[in-house]
Design goal:
Number of helices of chain A: 3
Structural class of chain B: mainly alpha
Distance between the termini of chain B: 58 Å
Largest interface: A-B, 24 and 26 residues
Strand content of chain A: 25-35%
Order of helices and strands of chain A: EHEEEEHEH
Largest sheet of chain B: none
Oligomer: heterodimer
Number of helices of chain B: 19
Helix content of chain B: 55-70%
Number of strands of chain B: 0
Number of strands of chain A: 6
Strand content of chain B: under 5%
Strand order of the largest sheet of chain A: 2-5-1-6
């Protein structure tokens, strides 16, 4: 499958309550498994990156951002605790990866799978065309 | 190599250490706070390590995180206002950072904190079962569900024990210190008894999750080692206790076969005994053999040592074992010890003598519902070729055994005496 047929998805890890009651041994296991999972996906080129998000921050809203409030980031099942940026064949593959999340062992951990909006189709088509030319040139240079 | 660079039980062991260190800073009345920030530090690790990788020195990272969280907490607390400056200095000095943890001075300070915590947990004013639960939680980093699993009880029951123990610490104003002088001797005895109980909980094969149980034995050994290495605990009796733990724990792997079936001593593969552990045990036996006091721990360690020293079952020095049991019954008049003595006696003087020794046990009726009494009698009868009598005893034992591996073992023994019984 060519690269152009791949789509980007973000996995959001929701919930920041489920870890609180894990035993030290369980915490250790989740850390180890999660790290291995992330490394594996990166090595396969399926994960382009990911970052944790801490339980603090602000909400900016209103005209010109007048209202700056403390984020509703207390313990909740909705809070986003981190994300992975995936580049995979389709939604089914993204879901398959989400299902491997080691946190899902524990109640309260939810993985949200969201497709990233496509860029302007015309431009993508143009790029494809350019890529095709580049390929031909390269092939002709290295017979 | 472990992909993440995390050592076995890292979180659990670090938690046990950090709670003691932070309690040293905040005071024993704030034990809960220490526990909370340590748990929170581990959660922080879970939130970030999967993305950035495991830090080079995970223990130092956890220490630093717990220290920062503790600082954040006390800055928010009004009641700590006057003490704040003092506490912040203490945390900065003693929290232990990457460099600090390498300094022997801080290592010793951390060890002292752990010992202080040990003396708190094993204080005679706290009931024995609460002591063990508290020690597992604060010193060994076990969580309530794990403790519940080890003691075959509910999480709620463990939570209750922990609350009760902490309440007792407050009410009795138990101090976070290593006692001195005469008090040290008395208090040390209480600590040894709790460690012995902790070890036995793990060692008795009769119930519970086997992995957790082995962990209990190893934790008891860890704590006992810590204490034995410290001037306050460096006493013959302490070394005897540690030796008995090591020499028994070394033989745990051979107690069952690959299917988890119980094996009798003569069936065990001695190649599976943990030789380095036996060597450590023998080292502590040597250290225990000084001073004027002969304790139960000495005798039990001695019995274990004789087993460890025997090349095979046939060369076991049962006479020496019997001698030690003869003295052990003077310390401990429990019928279980007397039953064990009868087994040793039968090895020296034959099964008939064993049966007589069993019937001479005082308070024998209290063993009536103990499956091992009947299993032992079955073995004695079988050795005399009294298959029918043996089968009767094994059948009785089988009715009383609760654990699958014990039942399987007895079924096997029963089958072995039945063909000739018919």
């Amino acid at each position: 499958m060519s690269k152009n047929n791949q789509s980007d998805y973000l996995l959001f890890f929701r919930g920041n309550t489920w870890e609180k009651n894990l035993t030290p041994e369980e915490l250790k296991k989740v850390v180890t498994d999660w790290y291995a999972w992330f490394q594996q996906l990166a090595a396969e080129g399926k994960c382009l990156g990911g970052l944790p998000l801490l339980d603090s921050g602000k909400l900016v809203s209103g005209k010109k951002g007048r209202a700056v409030a403390d984020g509703p980031f207390a313990e909740s099942k909705e809070t986003i605790a981190g994300y992975f940026h995936l580049r995979v064949a389709n939604e089914a593959e993204a879901i398959l990866i989400a299902q491997q999340c080691p946190g899902l062992e524990y109640e309260g951990c939810v993985v949200e799978v969201r497709p990233v909006g496509e860029q302007n189709v015309e431009r993508v088509g143009g790029l494809e065309h350019l890529e095709g030319i580049a390929k031909t040139v390269t092939t002709s240079l290295n017979p | 190599m472990d992909i993440s660079g995390l050592t076995d039980h890292l979180f659990r062991h670090e938690a046990g250490k950090l709670v003691s260190v932070l309690t040293g800073i905040f005071g024993i009345e704030r034990l809960q706070l220490a526990e909370d920030v340590v748990q929170e530090a581990m959660v922080r690790a879970l939130q970030t390590w999967p993305y950035y990788g495991v830090p080079k020195n995970p223990a130092a990272w956890l220490t630093q995180a717990a220290k920062n969280l503790a600082l954040d907490t006390i800055r928010r607390e009004k009641t700590f206002h006057d003490k704040q400056a003092q506490i912040i200095t203490l945390i900065e000095q003693r929290g232990g950072g990457e460099n600090e943890s390498e300094s022997p001075k801080f290592e010793n300070e951390i060890k002292d904190d752990r010992l202080r915590m040990m003396f708190v947990c094993c204080h005679p004013l706290i009931s024995r079962e609460d002591q063990v639960a508290l020690a597992l939680k604060t010193l060994c980093g076990f969580s309530p569900p794990e403790i519940a699993k080890a003691f075959l009880t509910t999480e709620a029951a463990i939570a209750k024990r922990l609350t009760r123990a902490k309440q007792r610490i407050r009410e009795a104003e138990i101090r976070f210190e290593i006692p001195e002088g005469d008090e040290l001797t008395r208090r040390l005895d209480a600590v040894l008894q709790s460690l012995y109980l902790l070890f036995n909980e793990g060692y008795k094969a009769s119930s519970g999750d086997s992995l957790v149980r082995e962990d209990l034995c190893l934790e008891a050994i860890r704590l006992a080692t810590l204490l034995a290495e410290h001037p306050a605990g460096n006493r013959p009796k302490m070394h005897a206790l540690l030796a008995l733990m090591l020499l028994n724990a070394a033989r745990i792997p051979s107690r069952v076969d690959h299917e988890g079936n119980l094996l009798r001593l003569q069936e065990q593969d001695r190649a599976r005994w943990n030789q380095p552990m036996i060597a450590r045990g023998m080292f502590h036996i040597a250290h225990s053999a000084s001073g004027a006091e002969l304790s139960e721990y000495h005798l039990q360690a001695g019995i274990a040592a004789v087993h460890c020293a025997a090349q095979d079952y046939a060369s076991t020095d049962w006479r020496q074992i019997l001698e030690m049991y003869d003295r052990l019954v003077e310390f401990d008049d429990s019928p279980v010890v007397a039953l064990n003595r009868a087994v040793a006696l039968a090895e020296v003087l034959g099964p008939q003598a064993g049966i007589e020794a069993v019937s001479a046990i005082q308070n024998l009726q209290s063993l009536e519902s103990y499956y091992l009494l009947h299993a032992v009698l079955g073995e004695f009868e079988l050795r005399m070729n009294h298959s029918r009598a043996a089968a009767g005893h094994f059948r009785k034992a089988l009715q009383l055994a609760e654990i699958k591996s014990e039942q399987a073992f007895l079924t096997k023994r029963l089958a072995e005496c039945e063909p000739t019984a018919r």
